[in-house]
Specification:
six-stranded mixed β-sheet, binds beta-D-fucofuranose, 44% helix, six-stranded parallel β-sheet, 326 residues, elongated, Rossmann fold, 2 domains, alpha/beta, 17% strand
Length: 326
């Protein structure tokens, strides 16, 4: 019985046809079942499509996942960084299906438009685990589970802070990548609580430069704005720069509320430049590894694995700031 890896390896080598490589592949095929990297078990072959490192959160998430999916942990990881382009991710997922990996993991850059490739994976018998971001796919068997935060709850938490600490504030909503699960759900949660306080919105695409430039324009378009709700810290820090560049005082003339919990944002929180930060923890590599092992073994897993988060306010301590690893 050819192991998946061997079958895939032979298929891949057929194209290249080098003698050495063919011999090696044959050795792999003939090796007694169960001999794999990382000890006596076959490695779990994972194809992972990540978004590009658009900021510190994503870089920390990638590092956490890579450090948990090593050969020593029993994994054979094929990692692809897909520049935040859906078409690039779809092409990579098709490559993973062709390579017959044991499980596909990916963070969908946007929430719509995945049914066709998810149908191909399902019909090829390759299970899919969503990492971080969500999709709207309702295809039966499209994916096994999602490991990531509850974005709507994050938006609601930010909204409750505004309702309690800034009732009547005129809010500019600085949106993440439009159509991403994080942007849509954080906005839904926030608006469910304080939608009547939002006077304008625009996307900064989760980047610091985007947050800075879009907030500068917003302060001109809506001079009455005195609070910015940023869908992530990178944009929030850009918004603080824009507020200052407009001759206004961050935290006094315009308050900023954000999501993620990066060290730099917590530092700005302690300094009064940001008013509140809702944590969205990127360091869930070990949780993901445990889920991938069980999925590859054909075991049942929960259809949702929520990565929890908390809220930080001005009382954040130096120890909490220094403890942030991203
Ligand atoms: O908040 C942001 C990153 O998908 C939750 O993506 C993640 C978001 C995170 O760009 O910093």
């Amino acid at each position: 019985m050819l192991r998946r890896g061997a079958r895939g390896a032979l298929g891949a080598l057929g194209g290249r046809g080098s003698r050495v490589a063919a011999v090696l592949a044959l050795a792999v095929v003939l090796a007694p079942a169960g001999c794999g990297a990382g000890g006596d078990a076959d490695p779990v072959r994972v194809g992972f499509s990540q978004l590009s490192a658009e900021g510190s959160w994503r870089a920390a998430n990638t590092a956490s996942i890579r450090s948990a999916l090593t050969p020593a942990d029993g994994f054979e990881l094929t990692f692809s960084d897909d520049q935040r382009k859906q078409e690039g991710q779809i092409a990579v997922l098709r490559g993973f299906i062709a390579a017959d990996v044991d499980v596909i993991a990916f963070s969908p850059v946007v929430q719509d438009g995945w049914d066709q490739v998810l149908r191909e994976a399902r019909d090829a018998g390759v299970p899919v685990v969503l990492v971080d971001r969500s999709t709207t796919s309702r295809l039966d068997g499209a994916y096994v589970t999602r490991v990531g935060a509850d974005f709507r709850a994050e938006g609601e938490r930010a909204g409750r802070w505004v309702r309690e600490h800034a009732p009547g504030a005129r809010v500019f909503e600085l949106q993440g990548t439009l159509g991403s699960g994080a942007q849509v759900a954080r906005q839904q949660g926030f608006r469910a609580v304080v939608g009547d306080q939002v006077v304008g919105e625009a996307t900064g695409a989760f980047t610091r430069a985007g947050g800075r430039d879009v907030t500068a324009a917003a302060l001109e378009a809506w001079p009455e704005v005195d609070l910015v709700f940023a869908h992530n810290d990178d944009m929030a820090l850009g918004a603080v720069e824009a507020v200052r560049a407009a001759g206004l005082r961050p935290g006094v003339d315009v308050r900023v509320v954000s999501v993620d919990g990066t060290r730099e944002a917590l530092r700005a929180l302690a300094d009064g430049e940001i008013a509140h930060v809702v944590e969205c923890d990127p360091l869930f590599g070990e949780q993901l590894a445990a889920v991938l092992r069980r999925v590859a073994a054909g075991e049942r897993v929960p259809d949702r694995v929520v990565v929890p988060g908390r809220g930080f306010d001005r009382s954040v301590t130096e120890a909490e700031i220094e403890a942030r690893t991203y």
